[in-house]
Design a protein that fits this description.
The structure is a single chain. The protein is built from ten helices and two strands. With about 300 residues, the chain is mostly helical. The longest helix has about 35 residues.
Amino acid sequence: MTRPREEARLRGRSSGYRAEVVSTPEHVAVDEHDRGLKGRARRQTRHAEATPAFRRLARTGIGARALVYLMFGALVMEIALAGHSSAPADTQGAFSLVERLPAGNVLLGALAAGLAAYAAFRVVQSLAGSPDARRNATWTRVGWMGSGLIYLAVFAEALAQIAGGGAGGPSSHPQPFVHHVLTWPGGPELLGAAAIGAAVGGVALGIFGVLHDYGEVLEHPGGTTLRLAHLSGMVGDLARGLVLALVAAYLFLAALTRSARHAKSLAAALQSLVGLPGGREALGVLASGLVLYAASSAIEARYRRI
């Protein structure tokens, strides 16, 4: 007769009875095998994460992120000062600026490689987790994975720019996609929920910037460097959160009015501020915040504990 994988036994206690689950040896062996495979995979991932090659990969990726935000901030500042920019104020515009430099294709290729490195760094970080239990929460690791996937998409945009096909997809031209979603059953509600989620993400990004302790992630920075990292990172994350909330506001308006014409790309949303009272001043503040985030990323590339 085949034994059950688990047996329940009732044992008397003065306070009553309780059921005790006893695992059979076969069940224990399967559980230990599964845990062993997962533990071995995680140990191997952490071992790769601790190698000098991986540290160089991560620092290169963070440096690439700094360059993208520097170019992005420069484009937003150009809108603030001149009312328009020489390229769209988004990642593709940043790639266009790099491409116009001497040996621009080579530089853009190096930047794309750096973005791929940053995506790999975040994905490995998510899979391996952190030995520090305080930084190993599930939501933290999900955030690392999300960041890795986002930068993988940015890497794909850079490759498209190199190949000469950088016209952009839904992120650069959202109206056809939004119009399609609005025709779905429950499409406006789905679009509105996505907009609210993006707005909440922007708020969360700003809160993270204010509360983040850079002393936990930077290794042996001087006091002045640590203060600069905290200030630039805080202002930069607040600026990034506001930019995300701005795009979310237009997406929510499209859902509310059931009209795709209200949806705007990142570049178009920023450009729309020019005609508003105080719009250029607001753009100048946002641009400064984005440049400060680039400075924070440069400090992180040098001092981050990996």
